[in-house]
Specification:
7 helices, binds FE2/S2 (inorganic) cluster, 7-stranded antiparallel sheet, globular, 22% helix, binds fe (ii) ion, single chain, alpha+beta, Naphthalene 1,2-dioxygenase Alpha Subunit, Chain A, domain 1, Rieske Iron-sulfur Protein, 329 residues, 4-stranded antiparallel sheet, 2 domains
Length: 329
């Protein structure tokens, strides 16, 4: 395939404000206890994460609409979050439910309440008013009842200070898979470029928006003699860098003690393998020069097509989401 000059012109497809509207995994389920409010940076904003009285997780914008106190310093009161400063209270829908003084609640006293899900040992939020696609999942052919699995955060050697699209581009940068990671030629054959997902060949790897991917049968092509699968997810978390979580799964085999032991060792192997591979990327991605256009060549066809996907992908900023929430939109 000949790379057209328009594709050659840039490795920086977006100048727009805002972040891709994706499902992002923010935190491990086990990190969020009852009565806890955790504050995190997310995309170009900040959020809180807490559980209501039934244990359901919620992700909302972080600053009180009264005078801007950080709600992660507040308290959970039944299903609500109460601001530490003057005790304004917000329900899980983000709407102010109570002002301690009994004053009339202003119309615009509404936080953003992000669509939130908890699955695979992770708490996820959709960056947008409504999810544009279903929560990322293991491939339907993976029967998790026949697998053992665990979720963890990749312990990177340094913070990954990059945006989701740059991290995502790795998967379509076939030159680097060989040169940097030493993988054999990875030829996905065909790639399906859909509106909110990208699929290698038969769906062996699916990329969901720019926030997650899943793979089945990976064990075979990284040289493991075992049936494994994974779901990888991450989020751009400002000062904390981009967090990357893995949910790794290995077949129980025939369910015997021997096979279960083997499955455990496969999970360890995958943990080390994925951590090493991403560690190899970190300092390179952190120091890329994005101010000058890159020169793509024929072998970069995957990157060239991916850049178009990124350019076309819907984005939204925190400021837009705040405005929508205030209007009750
Ligand atoms: S700043 Fe939150 S109640 Fe006043
Ligand atoms: Fe890489």
């Amino acid at each position: 395939m000949v790379v057209k000059s328009s594709q050659r012109s840039t490795f920086r497809p977006i100048d727009d404000e805002g972040y891709p509207q994706c499902w992002y995994a923010l935190i491990l389920s086990e990190e969020l206890g009852a009565n806890q409010i955790i504050g995190r940076d997310l995309c170009d904003g900040r959020v809180i994460i807490y559980r209501d009285s039934a244990g359901k997780a919620h992700v909302m914008s972080r600053y009180c609409k009264h005078l801007g106190a950080d709600l992660s310093l507040g308290e959970v009161v039944k299903d609500d979050v109460r601001c530490a400063f003057h005790h304004w209270q917000y329900g899980p829908d983000g709407v102010c439910s109570k002002i301690a003084t009994g004053d009339k609640i202003p119309e615009r006293a509404r936080l953003i309440s992000f669509p939130t899900e908890e699955k695979w040992g992770l708490i996820w939020a959709f960056w947008g008013a409504e999810p544009l696609y279903d929560l990322p999942s293991f491939h339907p052919s993976v029967d998790l009842d026949q697998f053992i699995w665990k979720a963890y955060e990749i312990p990177l050697k340094e913070k990954l200070q990059t945006e989701p699209w740059i991290f995502g581009a790795n998967a379509f940068d076939f030159q680097h898979l060989k040169a940097l990671h030493g993988l054999a030629d990875v030829d996905p054959g065909t790639i399906a470029w859909n509106q909110y997902d990208i699929q290698y060949g038969s769906g062996a790897i699916i990329f969901y928006g720019m926030g997650a991917s899943s793979s089945h049968g990976e064990g075979i092509w990284i040289g493991l003699d075992w049936d494994t699968a994974y779901l990888s997810a991450g989020a751009p978390m400002g000062r904390d860098g981009m967090k990357i979580f893995m949910v790794e799964a290995a077949s129980k085999g025939d369910g015997s003690e021997k096979d279960l032991k083997k499955a455990e060792s496969m999970l360890d192997h995958m943990h080390n393998y994925h951590t090493d591979v991403i560690d190899q990327d970190v300092d390179i991605l952190n120091t890329l020069n994005l101010d000058e256009p890159g020169l793509l060549v024929e072998s970069d066809w995957g990157i060239a097509r991916y850049l178009k996907y990124v350019k076309d992908y819907p984005r939204i900023s925190m400021a837009e989401l705040v405005g929508m929430a205030e209007r009750g939109a």
